[in-house]
Design brief:
By secondary structure, the protein is of the alpha/beta class. The protein has 14 helices and 19 strands. Helix 4 links the parallel strand 11 and strand 12 (154-158). It is globular.
């Protein structure tokens, strides 16, 4: 039985428009939009009416960078697909794109099937996959074509983590050439991992073992150098490039220079780089371990360049790189050796709220909020207009957002399966009230009404910016 739902009386905000409009939903999709109070809107009948008076009606967020259940450094990310997608829903995100991992010596197919098995039947909201390439060879290059055919249309490579995910320049070039021919988008973790490993070894030999040294060895210049090198390799291959979790002013400058040449180069940053800094990494009593991620947090002065990049479109997307590890028992693995602290921060639940706060703080406009958090990630990864907007025919992934509600971010109230919050105690204005995923209520006036298994795998087309 299909339920007709009518969302009435809200301010509809998309990347392109702000209009007082009512939304009619049928069979899990947006059936029609009409100006509030117009003849068309008043004539609609529905089984269920949702009152959005005083609220924004926005597209569900698309978080294009998450790591649920990721094995890392002898442990595993603490959010499962079930807990992680529930937390995403609480934060107004209705689609995640997670990373399936190919292990060295194994096929892409094997890695992808492992991730299908983890997610299938467990997700509260919809999901898609990127593929991490850890072992570029003739066999895996051929497999890239097959994956594009089944809707896994982006491939992540690492210039960091030698011995784990690292690819050398030759492997990267080959993968980029393949992407240029099959339409797959190459995503890059741009840090010079070989040089960083030398600096890690030297720091530990000097007895510099605290979490803050994680940020000091992963130098800004080694992010900028790798970003530059990735761009040049992409130019040689004639391939588009998407650089993940950009954290430093100098790396933004490399992207801006490439884009000024008209190159198909794109960049993502994350809330942790916009709101946190090396001050957090330096917190005493090993508390800094909570903030260890790679690329690392930077000195506060880099934040202005990241916000500017988001305004000028030199950075296009804000994703979370959600990869949570509990402080107790997981982050603590690195006591006495920062290089053994599992890398990653929790954040899938906080992104939409933090970016709304950025609107209030004057960093970005309301429509730009929706653009960088919903529409552009959907377009970048071949999900638009099914996801990322509210338009006739789109999936009814819709959030009723209360722009006036005040909240304090805290581990005591969040829904991520992790024992701390990276934003503990931060006061913000704006909060998710109600969330629909394909027309089904997942959060109903601050109450979780969703279920594991509602979320389905969404095959993607290729990048829509090319």
């Amino acid at each position: 039985m299909s339920i007709r739902t009518l969302i009435r009386g809200g301010l509809l905000v998309t990347a392109s428009d702000e209009v007082h409009a009512d939304v009619l939903i049928e069979d899990g999709r947006v059936a029609a939009l009409a100006a509030h109070g117009s003849g068309a809107a008043t004539a609609w009948t529905a089984d269920r009416t949702v009152d959005a008076t005083g609220k924004y009606v926005i597209p569900g967020g698309v978080d294009a960078h998450t790591h649920m259940e990721l094995p890392f450094g002898g442990t595993s990310a603490s959010d499962t697909f079930e807990t992680g997608t529930q937390a995403a829903a609480w934060g107004g995100t209705t689609t995640i794109v997670d990373f399936a991992v190919q292990s060295v010596g194994h096929s892409l197919r094997e890695g992808l099937d492992t991730w299908y098995a983890k997610a299938d039947g467990n997700c509260a909201v919809d999901y898609a996959f990127h593929m991490i390439l850890s072992d570029v060879n003739e066999g895996t290059l051929k497999e890239m074509d097959l994956l594009v055919g089944e809707g896994v249309t982006s491939f992540k490579l690492f210039m960091a983590y030698p011995g784990v995910f690292y690819s050398d320049d030759g492997q990267i070039l080959r993968a980029m050439q393949r992407g240029a021919s099959n339409g797959g988008l190459i995503m890059m973790h741009a840090e010079n991992g070989i040089a960083i490993d030398v600096l890690v070894e030297q720091a530990l030999a000097r007895g510099e073992t605290d979490p803050r040294h994680h940020g000091e060895v992963r130098k800004v210049l080694l992010e900028a150098e790798a970003t530059h090198r990735a761009i040049q390799l992409a130019r040689v291959a004639g391939a588009p490039l998407y650089v993940v979790h950009v954290s430093a002013e100098e790396a933004v400058a490399e992207l801006a220079a490439a884009r000024d040449k008209g190159l198909p180069v794109f960049g993502e940053t994350c809330p942790q780089y916009l709101f946190l800094s090396t001050d957090n990494l330096a917190e005493p009593d090993f508390q800094g371990a909570k903030y260890v991620c790679s690329t690392p947090l930077r000195p506060r002065e880099h934040q202005a360049a990241l916000w500017r990049g988001l305004r000028t479109n030199d950075l296009q997307v804000v994703s979370t790189d959600h990869c949570p590890f509990c402080f107790r028992g997981q982050k603590e693995l690195g006591r006495g050796d920062f290089s053994k602290i599992p890398n990653g921060l929790p954040g899938v639940e906080n992104r939409m709220d933090l970016l709304h706060q950025a609107v209030l703080d004057g960093h970005i406009s309301r429509r730009r909020w929706i653009e960088i958090a919903c529409a552009t990630p959907a377009r970048m990864f071949g999900l638009y207009p099914q996801k990322g907007t509210i338009a006739p025919g789109s999936d009814a992934d819709i959030v009723l957002y209360d722009p006036h509600a005040e909240q304090v971010i805290s581990a005591e109230t969040h829904h991520m399966n992790v024992d701390y919050s990276a934003y503990e105690g931060k006061r913000i204005t704006g909060r998710v009230d109600t969330v629909l995923s394909r027309g089904e209520l997942v959060i109903d006036q601050r109450e979780f009404t969703g279920r594991a298994g509602h979320g389905v795998f969404v095959p993607r087309s290729t990048c829509q910016y090319l």
